[in-house]
UniProtKB/TrEMBL annotation:
Belongs to the major facilitator superfamily. Sugar transporter (TC 2.A.1.1) family. The lineage of its organism: Eukaryota, Viridiplantae, Streptophyta, Embryophyta, Tracheophyta. It comes from the Eukaryota. This is Polyol/monosaccharide transporter 1. Keywords: Membrane, Sugar transport, Symport, Transmembrane, Transmembrane helix, Transport. One of its GO terms (cellular component) is membrane. It comes from Medicago truncatula (Barrel medic). The keyword Transmembrane helix applies.
Length: 500
C-alpha cells in the first residue's frame, strides 16, 4: 500500500530548491560583511606598520565599522519597508563597492576611515535585511536552515579575510598588500548587485504593498506544493489584516501599513505584552552575542596568540586562519541542527560551552602573563580554548541570534523590530572592539576573558527564562506563541518556557 500521507509530508518538509537559491544569493551580502571584519584583523598589523597608527587609532579603526553599522541598521528597517527587501540588499552592495574602493586607495588614515564608515553602513543594511529576506521566503520547516545562511556566509567571509591576510601579506609589498586586501571586497559586491536583481521580492513584503498577485506567484515558486503555497498565502493575508478569501491581484492598504509608518509607536511606546516580550528576547540575544566577547577573539586573535607566546607574523596569521576555519565548520553543523534540535536548546548548549572556553582561556593567558619563561602547556591551552570557544559560539549563539530576531516579530513590525536588534548588536560589537585593548590593559588579558565568562553566565540565565522555542512555528504563529496564558490568565514568559 502506498503511503500517500507520508509522501505529502516529505514534500512539505523538503527544502525548496528555488527558495534555497534565493537565500544563498541574499546571503552573499553577508560574505562581504564578514570579509570586512576578518580582513581588518590581519590588515591592521600591516596598516600600523605602514601608516604608523597608535593603539587608540587601531581601536577606532576596528570599531568605527560597527558604529556606522548601527546607523545603517536603523535606516535599513525603514528602507526595507519602503523600497523592499531586495532593493535594500542591492543598496548594501553598492555601499560595499564604494567603501572597498576608498579603503583600497587609502593614501592616509582619514580616507581609510571614510571608506570603513561607508562599508559600516553597508554592514548595517546587510545584517538587518539578509536574515529577514531569507526568513520571509522560507517555510516553517526550513526557516532555521535558510535564515541561518547569512551567519554561515559571515563566517565564510571572515575566513576569506584571514586567507587574504596570509597570502597577500606574505607575497606582496607592505604598501600594496593591505590595500589589495581591503579593495578586493568590491568584486563579490558587483556580483551581488547583479544577482539580487534576478531574485524575486519577499512575498510578505509584496502582500504588505497590496500586490497579492505577485506575492502568490512568488509563493508558488518557493513552496513545494500548491496546497503549501495556498496555506502560506492565506496566513500572510490574515497577518496583514486582509480577508483570506480576498483574491484580487492588487488591493489598497492604508499607507501606514504598507510603508511601515507608526511602527515605532507599536514597538517602543505602546507595545502589546507579546510585542514587548519579543523585543526583550530579540534585544537580549543581540546584546549577549557580543557582550560575551566574540569580537575580541575574531578581531584581536593575533594579539591573543601573541600574548600566548606565538611570535612570528606568519604563525600569527596561520593561527587566525584556524579560528576562521573552526567558525565555518561549526556553523555548517549548526545549519543541520537548528531545525531539529531547536533554537532554545542550541542557545543553552552553546553558552555553556562558551563559559568553559572563556574560563580556560582566561586561566591560560594569566599563567603565561605571570610566567618568567615560555610555558608550552599554557600556550597550547590558549589555542585550544580559543578554538573551543569559537566552536561553541558558532554552533548556537551565532546563527540563532540572526534567525530568532528575523522570525518572531509580526509582519508589520518585522523589519524595524529586527533593525532595533541589529542596532543593539552593532553597538555592543563597537563597544567591545573599540575598548578591548584598553580593557585588557586595565584588567590584564586573562582578566578580560574571565569578565566575558561571567557575562556568559548571565546570558545563559537570560536564555533559560526569556527565550521560548520557535522551532516548527510559522511566522504568523509567533504572536500566539508569545501570548500564551497560564490558568490564572497571566503571561507565562518566565513560568512555562524554562520547562519546555
Amino acid at each position: 500500500m502506498i503511503d500517500t500521507q507520508g509522501d505529502i509530508e516529505n514534500q512539505v518538509t523538503k527544502v525548496n530548491k528555488y527558495a534555497f537559491a534565493c537565500a544563498i544569493v541574499a546571503s552573499m551580502v553577508s560574505i562581504v560583511s564578514g570579509y570586512d571584519t576578518g580582513v581588518m584583523s590581519g590588515a591592521m598589523i600591516f596598516i600600523q606598520e605602514d601608516l604608523g597608527i597608535s593603539d587608540t587609532q587601531q581601536e577606532v579603526l576596528a570599531g568605527i565599522l560597527n558604529l556606522c553599522a548601527l546607523v545603517g541598521s536603523l535606516t535599513a528597517g525603514r528602507c526595507s519597508d519602503y523600497i523592499g527587501r531586495r532593493y535594500t540588499i542591492f543598496l548594501a552592495s553598492v555601499l560595499f563597492i564604494i567603501g572597498a574602493i576608498l579603503m583600497g586607495y587609502g593614501p592616509n588614515y582619514t580616507i581609510l576611515m571614510i571608506g570603513r564608515c561607508i562599508c559600516g553602513i553597508g554592514v548595517g543594511f546587510a545584517l538587518m535585511v539578509a536574515p529577514v529576506y531569507s526568513a520571509e521566503i522560507s517555510s516553517a520547516h526550513s526557516r532555521g536552515l535558510l535564515a541561518s545562511l547569512p551567519e554561515l556566509c559571515i563566517g565564510i567571509g571572515i575566513f576569506l579575510g584571514y586567507l587574504s591576510n596570509y597570502f597577500l601579506g606574505k607575497y606582496l609589498s607592505l604598501k600594496l598588500g593591505w590595500r589589495l586586501m581591503l579593495a578586493i571586497a568590491a568584486i563579490p559586491s558587483f556580483a551581488l548587485a547583479y544577482g539580487i536583481l534576478t531574485m524575486p521580492e519577499s512575498p510578505r513584503w509584496l502582500v504588505m504593498q497590496g500586490q497579492l498577485g505577485k506575492a502568490k506567484k512568488v509563493l508558488f515558486q518557493v513552496s513545494n506544493t500548491t496546497q503549501e503555497a495556498e496555506l502560506r498565502f492565506n496566513d500572510i493575508k490574515l497577518a496583514a489584516g486582509l480577508d483570506e478569501n480576498c483574491n484580487d491581484e492588487i488591493v489598497k492598504l492604508p499607507q501606514k501599513s504598507h510603508q511601515g509608518e507608526g511602527v515605532w509607536k507599536e514597538l517602543i511606546l505602546r507595545p502589546t505584552p507579546a510585542v514587548r516580550w519579543m523585543l526583550i528576547a530579540s534585544v537580549g540575544i543581540h546584546f549577549f552575542e557580543h557582550a560575551t566577547g566574540i569580537e575580541a577573539v575574531m578581531l584581536y586573535s593575533h594579539k591573543i596568540f601573541k600574548k600566548a607566546g606565538i611570535k612570528s607574523k606568519e604563525n600569527l596569521l596561520l593561527a587566525t586562519i584556524g579560528v576562521g576555519l573552526t567558525k565555518i565548520i561549526f556553523l555548517v553543523l549548526a545549519l543541520f541542527l537548528i531545525d531539529k534540535v531547536g533554537r532554545r536548546r542550541l542557545l543553552q548548549v552553546s553558552t555553556a560551552g562558551m563559559i568553559i572556553g572563556l574560563t580556560a582561556l582566561g586561566f591560560s593567558l594569566t599563567m603565561v602573563e605571570h610566567a618568567n619563561e615560555e610555558v608550552l602547556w599554557a600556550l597550547t591551552l590558549s589555542i585550544i580554548a580559543t578554538y573551543f570557544y569559537v566552536a561553541f559560539f558558532n554552533i548556537g549563539l551565532a546563527p540563532v541570534t540572526w534567525l530568532y530576531g528575523s522570525e518572531i516579530f509580526p509582519l508589520k513590525l518585522r523589519a524595524q523590530g529586527v533593525s532595533i536588534g541589529v542596532a543593539v548588536n552593532r553597538s555592543m560589537n563597537a563597544a567591545v572592539s573599540m575598548s578591548f585593548i584598553s580593557i585588557y590593559k586595565a584588567l590584564t588579558i586573562g582578566g578580560a576573558f574571565f569578565m566575558f565568562a561571567a557575562i556568559s553566565v548571565i546570558a545563559w540565565v537570560f536564555f533559560y527564562f526569556l527565550v521560548p522555542e520557535t522551532k516548527g512555528k510559522t511566522l504568523e504563529e509567533m504572536e500566539t506563541l508569545f501570548t500564551k496564558k497560564n490558568k490564572s490568565g497571566k503571561s507565562v514568559a518566565m513560568e512555562t518556557y524554562p520547562t519546555q
